[in-house]
């Protein structure tokens, strides 16, 4: 028996492990069980947290690290990557949930945080000579429909008296128009990790609001405010995007980008193409190998266009088995199989509980990989 060739292509694990760290932990554990395994590490991202990090590792380019307005209005450092005349912008770097401590994720805060820093990153990219900006969506703390981003681009939301509205999505129900025409000056690509519309039971507020602190009342209020905002966007840009896939991404930031004419591309698909996932899987398929992917929580959202779906689909096209290692697993076997996943394993279950797994995320993931390798690691 000899070790099979393995491509290890995980996303980041929430706020605990970067994609690069997760790939390293999986490889370490796998090699403990199968020392002669040939492992290709390919950390990935689907537009959310880690988007810029994984792209820079493979593409190179110039990393810029400006200070921009964070979700609370305070400055945060938000890296973006320049490769030629293309800017890769990670929206979560400016307005990500990791900027909001868990104890501050309240209904009031959920309606007050802003995407203004994303607009400032786009201005910086344009000033650096970029003609195209690829914006990774996902992992945001915001539900402002991209209003903050537009304000930074010269098109602030105004109320009936002509006064600029406060930051956040809570007051967008009072918006009647924008203060001007957004000044972008670049071709835009919205790299989305989900396909949710802006409004309704599958929209930005209902699906993602609770993890940002919104309770039932706040979700209803934000959804109603975003409905008014959608009318304002349509009037200002001539594009009614409320029902378009990914309009609800990053708390409705997707809607603002689509209204500006952004082309939507799967974040996972874009990274798959730029980082050479298909070529890596071709090599694994030629040797009868295995694909491993993973993320913090393998749940129903994972099946809506996120990275695991892209990796599993690409592996299935080549007849390569795909195994998921995740912090938690709530997808049933039938649903997983339909997405091309042959097996899914939970780090928290293997460790005996969430608290135990969170005490040493890298060590727990490595231990799970060692366990799984004894089942899947030899040919």
UniProtKB/TrEMBL annotation:
Pfam families with a match to the protein in the record: Gly_kinase
UniProt record, GO biological process: organic acid phosphorylation
GO molecular function: glycerate kinase activity
SUPFAM superfamilies the record matches: Glycerate kinase I
Gene3D superfamilies hit by this protein: Glycerate kinase, domain 1, Glycerate kinase, domain 2
Cleavable signal peptide: none
InterPro entries found in the cross-reference section: Glyc_kinase_flavodox-like_fold, Glycerate_kinase, Glycerate_kinase_RE-like, Glycerate_kinase_sf
Keyword terms: Kinase, Transferase
Family that this chain belongs to: Belongs to the glycerate kinase type-1 family.
NCBIfam families: glycerate kinase
UniProt protein name: Glycerate kinase
Lineage: Bacteria, Bacillati, Actinomycetota, Actinomycetes, Pseudonocardiales
């Amino acid at each position: 028996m000899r070790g099979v060739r393995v491509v290890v292509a995980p996303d980041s694990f929430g706020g605990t492990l970067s994609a690069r760290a997760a790939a390293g932990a999986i490889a370490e554990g796998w090699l403990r069980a199968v020392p002669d395994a040939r492992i290709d590490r390919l950390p990935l991202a689907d537009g959310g947290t880690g988007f810029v990090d994984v792209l820079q590792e493979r593409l190179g380019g110039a990393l810029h690290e400006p200070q921009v307005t964070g979700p609370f209005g305070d400055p945060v450092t938000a890296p973006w990557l320049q490769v030629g005349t293309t800017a890769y912008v990670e929206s979560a770097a400016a307005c990500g949930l990791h900027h909001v401590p868990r104890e501050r994720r309240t209904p009031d805060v959920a309606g007050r945080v802003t995407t203004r820093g994303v607009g400032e990153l786009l201005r910086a990219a344009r000033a650096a000579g970029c003609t195209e900006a690829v914006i990774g969506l996902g992992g945001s703390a915001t539900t402002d429909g991209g209003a903050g981003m537009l304000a930074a681009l010269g098109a602030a939301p105004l109320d009936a008296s002509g006064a600029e509205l406060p930051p956040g999505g809570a007051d967008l129900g009072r918006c009647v128009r924008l203060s001007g025409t957004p000044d972008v000056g670049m071709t835009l690509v919205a790299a989305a990790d989900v396909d949710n519309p802006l409004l309704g039971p599958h929209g930005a507020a209902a699906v993602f609001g609770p993890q940002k602190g919104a309770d039932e009342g706040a979700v209803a209020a934000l959804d109603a405010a975003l409905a008014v905002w959608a009318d304002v966007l349509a009037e200002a840009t001539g594009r009614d995007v409320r029902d378009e896939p990914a309009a609800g991404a990053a708390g409705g930031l997707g809607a603002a980008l689509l209204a500006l004419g952004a082309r939507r591309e799967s974040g996972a698909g874009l990274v798959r193409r730029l980082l050479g996932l298909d070529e890596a899987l071709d090599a694994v398929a030629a040797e009868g190998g295995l694909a491993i992917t993973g993320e913090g929580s393998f749940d129903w959202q994972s099946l809506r266009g996120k990275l695991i779906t892209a990796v599993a689909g690409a592996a299935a096209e080549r007849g390569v088995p795909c195994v998921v290692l995740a912090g938690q697993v709530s997808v049933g076997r039938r649903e997983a199989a339909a997405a091309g996943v042959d097996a899914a394993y939970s780090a928290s279950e293997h460790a005996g509980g969430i608290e135990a797994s969170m005490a040493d995320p890298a060590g727990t993931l490595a231990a799970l990989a060692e366990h799984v390798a004894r089942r899947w690691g030899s040919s």
